[in-house]
Design brief:
The chain is mostly beta strands. It is built from one helix and 23 strands.
Length: 327
């Protein structure tokens, strides 16, 4: 299938995307390396800070799928088409080719998204990647140029039939890897287990991966920008799960700097009862929590936002957050 046909379909899809940005369209089938099932979920863990972020497709429009996170590039509209392995990204103005997964090693394109403003090179194929979700063969590796010294995605690994299994980012503290720890793709669960499986399924969402703090001259105080964070847990096991809380506080939202130190807490200035509580999450039941964090930081830079339960079991989601000052 030629590139000319792809370009024509993308122009049609782009018109539909602009015309019905929040509408519900019919998504085209994902290609071999970027699955796009409505129920697909991927959870990644930060190798340096230990936080997690869960990725899903939250809406479609004109054949485009909106991923809540796409390999450190932030929430992204992605077009995969059908019958070929071309993959495009929407940069807010136009579509850009991410890569052709069928191309030979050395094939290159370019994107202009956030700190990734430069070349994307298909740098490897047939690679084996081992992550907590499993060992994946025949992976394709993309290498990306960044225009920021301490931010931006530098490499992405895609496994056929699974999607993104790992990506690497620049960080002020050094390189950081995000690795796949669990996923539900095309009706299959990773890591794959024999017999009856189950357990606690954790997902989360973050309203932004980049925020701006107004430092321009003016009179009067300016409110800090806010980040909305959600955490949802579901008991997929056959047994109830019990969580013990040592106060009336059920969850915490925090912002960590590049050294892993907490710089802002949602609970600061709030008061909670000191009673010990035990809550039971029944099989098939879900808990969902959403709140906002006022983002107050001492300096611009790369941070990690996370939301966690304050219980005896560790339950947490996390996402990178770039904070810039505007003067």
């Amino acid at each position: 299938m030629g590139h000319t046909w792809v370009g024509r379909a993308l122009r049609i899809g782009a018109v539909a995307l602009v015309a019905s940005w929040c509408g519900a369209g019919v998504a085209l089938a994902g290609n071999d390396y970027v699955p796009d099932g409505a129920n697909d979920r991927w959870t990644y863990r930060n190798s340096r800070f230990g936080g997690e972020v869960t990725v899903a497709i939250d809406r479609t429009s004109g054949g485009w799928d909106h991923f809540t996170e796409f390999a450190g590039l932030g929430p992204s509209w992605v077009w995969t088409g059908t019958g070929h392995n071309w993959t495009y990204l929407w940069n807010g103005t136009t579509y850009e080719l991410l890569t052709n997964f069928d191309a030979r090693v050395g094939f290159s394109s370019s994107i202009t998204i956030g700190c990734n403003r430069g070349r994307v090179t298909l740098a490897g194929r047939g690679e084996t990647v081992q992550v907590p979700a499993g060992t994946f063969a025949d992976c394709v590796r993309l290498e990306l140029q960044t225009s920021c010294a301490d931010a931006g995605t530098t490499a992405i690994w895609f496994a056929p039939g699974v999607g993104i299994v790992k990506w690497s980012e620049q960080n002020i503290a050094g390189p950081v890897d995000w690795v796949l720890v669990r996923a539900e793709v095309g009706g299959r669960t990773y890591p794959q287990q024999s017999g009856q499986g189950g357990g606690l399924v954790i997902s989360g969402s973050f309203s932004a991966t980049q925020l701006y703090v107004n430092r321009m001259p003016g009179t009067g105080p300016r409110p800090a920008p806010e980040l909305t964070v959600s955490l949802e847990i579901t008991n997929r096991s056959a047994q109830p799960l019990r969580f013990t809380f040592h106060s009336g506080q059920t969850y915490e939202i925090e912002l960590l700097d590049a050294q892993g130190q907490v710089v802002t807490r949602w609970s600061d200035g709030r008061y909670f009862t000191q009673a010990i509580r035990t809550l039971e999450l029944r099989p098939g039941e879900s808990w969902s929590f959403t709140d906002r964090l006022a983002v107050s930081v001492p300096a611009a830079g790369q941070y990690t936002a996370r939301m966690r339960l304050t219980a005896d079991k560790q339950v947490m989601v996390a996402s990178p957050l770039q904070v810039d000052f505007v003067y």
